[in-house]
Amino acid sequence: MANLLSLPNEILLDIFGYFHSIDLLHAFYGLNYRFNNLLYKQYRSYSFDFNSISKLTFDMICQQHLPSITDRVIALALSNSENSVEQIDLFLAYIPSLNVFTNVRSLTFESINSSEKLMEIIDQCHQLCNLTSLKLFSYSIEVEQTNIQIIVNKIWALPKLTHCIFNIYNCAQNHFYMPQKASSSITYLTIDTSNKIKSNQLNQLFEHTPCLKHFSACIEYNINENYIPSTFLTLTQLKITITREYPVQQMNLFFQSFLNLRCLGINIWSILFDGHRWEYMIHNYLPNLQIFKLRMTGTLAEDRNIEEQVDELINSFRSSFWIDEHRWFVRCFTADGRKIYLYTLSNTFNYHEYTMSDSNLFKSTDPHDNEQKLCNSINNIYNETYFDQITSSHLLLPNIKYLKIKLPISDQFWAIIPSLNQLKFLQIYSYVDIFQNQLQALFDLAPNLYSVSIYEDQPSSSYMSIFKSKYTSLHNLCLQDYARCCNHYFDEDDCVALTSSSLSIQCKILSISVTNRENIIYLVENMYNLHLLIVKCKDDKYFKTSPAMENNDELIPWLKDRLPSTCSITRDYDDSWVIRIWF
Predict the structure, then answer these.
(1) Are strands 578-582 and 568-571 parallel, antiparallel or unpaired?
(2) Which residues form the F-box domain (predicted)?
């Protein structure tokens, strides 16, 4: 500490920049007057990401620190996600207007659950004279067509906005509404794939975004549309997804618009353009292209030999244009019979589609590429029966980060998984107590696990064996499966066993079903690092009255009377049987 105090202010301020802002205030505020003065008067680069923090910490930052440093905050990220219920609403209650953040440059809002709140946020953004980046995420929201149009227009009217991510999934509409106002500042625009853009709308989008340089979106072609290309000289980077069949002549017209394009990423479903066709389009319409990332998925013809078709496709990418001039190598592989995937090796796409089977074909234009290198790129296993389908025994999967697996675990799994050092997320299905040793074996292989979900096929008492497992650093533990509707309800003895287990020592987020409300109180009081409890309660009477209305809810008031007043206690937005307690 003495060495730290001897440093000049300039060096201390540089050191502060290496800390996340929440950790910075935790570590240095309150040490002495000098540090407090540096933090409140001189440090000018606070960036607060409030996702997945405890409500206690959130309240402390908002109430104690933010009022003194609002002019020094350059970035804010707020979320109403399952890990931080009502956070956006609480933040706007603490700080009624965003206009106090006079130097904020970046705002991120995730899981906005009402169109009124979204409109309020956009209106307040117009009071921020330095705002250059706006990221909006919401995966389930009902917004009237008129309001969506107003929101888009207001975003395009923000005077200094350069970066925009628009990921608002409207339940009633999956198309993006074109801006009716022009933005002279937006240069980076990402529109999520849930908001499709028709190709004949592109001209309007670019006319109202004339400075656009980087653009990412999902493009949809309709056979009856009349697309007339324009030239968009500012665009240098394009990333698109095409979900429907796109005729060759329309693709030619599409690329004629981007003469200055330097980087192209394209993901095409259900269409296979060969290397000759891509070479023609790039050579004639994209003369400045330097980076090309391609992903195509299609189905091979049934009346022709599979290997002949694969060879024909891969050989079309072996010309000097691909190999010598650009060094753009591609690999392709088959799966599920006649399904084929083709990727450029420059891609960062996840190969979760690939099943290691002796019946699959693997081809590459890179002489140094092989099937093991493809397996090295597999990070996520989303199919719990994936390892039951594997027939190749000579390949390894060394870099799994997300694993969904069904018990009992096959011998094939242990043969091809050398370690799980990178595993962060684990989902276990069909758990029964006789598989406790296999669960422990997974824990032993995975020293960096962050989240574990364990599900049964049938409710039983076998969950008690889980708590015999030894693992002390879990952040997230999920013991209920909403989709399968076969949750085990934990009684008092179960809850005592859970809180005594090493699995609960560092647990911050717990999802569970309990037999009665007293179990909820016990878990909150005895899991000392917990800051979010997602719980179903068997004696919840909310839906036992008809109609189910807010004034029938007696469990929420009961919990509020017995838990600290600082807790946020709400019913889940999508499933009202589920209660979220954030504390």
Answers:
(1) antiparallel
(2) 1-46
Establish if 402 belongs to a structural domain: yes
Domain total in the chain: 1
In this prediction, residue 108 carries a pLDDT of: 97
Label the pairing between strands 425-429 and 451-454: parallel
Structure tokens at 378: 């597999």
523: in domain: yes
Which residue ranges of the chain lie beneath pLDDT 50? 546-547
Segments of 498-543 assigned E as strands:
509-514, 532-537
Would you state the pLDDT for residue 290? 96
Confidence at residue 459, expressed as pLDDT on a 0 to 100 scale: 59
pLDDT at position 52 is 84
Indicate yes or no: pTM above 0.90.
Answer: yes
Are 242 and 269 spatial neighbours (Cβ–Cβ below 8 Å)? yes
pLDDT per residue over 40-64, tens digit each?
999 999 999 998 899 999 999 999 9
CB atoms within 10 A of CB 84: 26
**Domain-embedded: residue 299:** no
Q: Please state whether the peptide bond connecting residue 408 to the residue before it is cis, i.e. omega within 30 degrees of 0.
A: yes
Tell me if 516 is assigned to some domain.
Answer: yes
Cis before 547 (ω within 30): yes
What lies within 8 Å, CB to CB, of 129 at 6+ separation is 102, 159, 160
Residue showing tokens 């003469």: 259
For residue 451, the enclosing domain spans 379-583
Amino acid 220: pLDDT: 85
pLDDT at 171: 63
Q: How far is 444 from 421, CA to CA, in rounded Å? A: 10
Sequence-ordered list of residues with C-beta below 8 angstroms from that of 186, at least 6 positions apart, any chain: 156, 161, 162, 163, 164, 209, 211, 212
Q: How far is CA 75 from the centre of its chain?
A: 19
Q: Tokens 């790129």 map to which residue?
A: 377
Distance CA 283, CA 578 (A): 56
